[in-house]
Amino acid sequence: MFVGDSLNRNQWESMVCLLHQSSNFTGRKSHEKSGSLVIFSIEEYNTTVEFYWAPFLVESNSDNPWRHSIKDRIIKPESIKNNGDDWKGVDYLIFNSYIWWMNTGYMKVLRGSFDVEPVEYDEIERPVAYSRVLKTWAKWVDENIDMKFTSVYFMSMSPTHIKSTDWDNPDGILCAKETLPMVNLSIPPPNVGTDHKLWGIAADVIQTMKVPVNYINITAMSEYRKDAHTSVYTTRQGQLMTAEQQADPATYADCIHWCLPGLPDTWNELLYTHIILHS
């Protein structure tokens, strides 16, 4: 089960495609949605590959998987939706949480309940809120996961390529029309919207946990891939972009999510390697 935001869903989609590509399934397969959960089932192998929408891992006002485009995103840092009951009992749990933190330097933290109007909140610095959330997540993992039956993974942050000046292309338009990765690997990766404070917070929290968590670093390799985003070849609200939208990449290019086949396949190869090594 992949748990997290749309980048983890991107990786889940990659995993489902890789399974289709590499295996000769003759039995029944199914795809169903149930609340925050999307389930791909392969009955022949008694296997499911699942994705659970939880962009902040903790409870928030953005937990509806189909209606989450909320301007004022508010989190409840010490509460996990339904006590994380939907995450229990799987063999492999793959978590992430990053891109939904990047709208602002401050996070709105609930004071009280979402059920009481008006909803009241405090605003605290992003790293402070991120640390509180990951400590809540870590506590849940330590209290609910039996390491003899479940392996836990945390994917590091997936970078964005929104400012073409970050890779010395002042005439570029976001990531649109980028056809090559950054090829000079002798220099450090560019600063492309990666908050390394959050990377370090995740690493530090994981080090304190009783249950071993494999922190899979996809960040540096992904920072070089300015060419790998869906750009204008994507959907908006479930619809393919129109020709007019594609002609306006400055407004419509998606430089957050990734093409498939593409970079998330490599993330899954790393994940698969970790699974095999620790089996």
From TrEMBL:
Residues 1-273 form the Trichome birefringence-like C-terminal domain. It holds the Pfam family PC-Esterase. Belongs to the PC-esterase family. TBL subfamily. This is Trichome birefringence-like C-terminal domain-containing protein. The lineage of its organism: Eukaryota, Viridiplantae, Streptophyta, Embryophyta, Tracheophyta.
